[in-house]
């Protein structure tokens, strides 16, 4: 839901990049592959789904969206305006 509302790092159109979609697709890939390769892939349905999930999310997030580089991470308080970093004494 957070992706659809625009509060996540993923763009809104990438709402389908989630385990509830990618894991069944991995199962379909394994079931629809014919012959001995399909038989070998039957035990890897979960892994295929996870590979699809992480590949899609990496491809979408490979380059940060413009304007997000200086933004603090969600859930963290921004620094106060004019606040300075604490000074450290030379060791």
Poorly predicted residue ranges: none
- Please compute the radius of gyration using only Cα atoms: 21 Å
Average pLDDT, rounded to a whole number, is: 74
Number of alpha- plus pi-helical segments: 4
Shape field: elongated
**Beta-strand share of residues:** under 5%
Largest sheet: none
Strand and helix order: HHHH
Helix content: 40-55%
SS-based structural class?
mainly alpha
Head-to-tail CA distance between termini: 49 Å
Count every beta strand, where a strand is a DSSP E run of 2 or more residues.
0
What would you say this structure looks like, in words?
With 91 residues, this protein is mainly α. The protein is built from 4 helices and no strands. The longest helix has 17 residues, at 45-61. The protein starts with a helix and ends in a 30-residue tail after the last helix.
Main attributes?
single chain; 91 residues; mainly alpha; 4 helices; elongated
Summarize the structure.
It is built from four helices and no strands. Helices cover 46% and strands 0% of the residues.
Secondary structure elements and pairings:
Blueprint: H1 2-5, H2 19-32, H3 35-41, H4 45-61
Helix pairs in contact: 2-3, 2-4
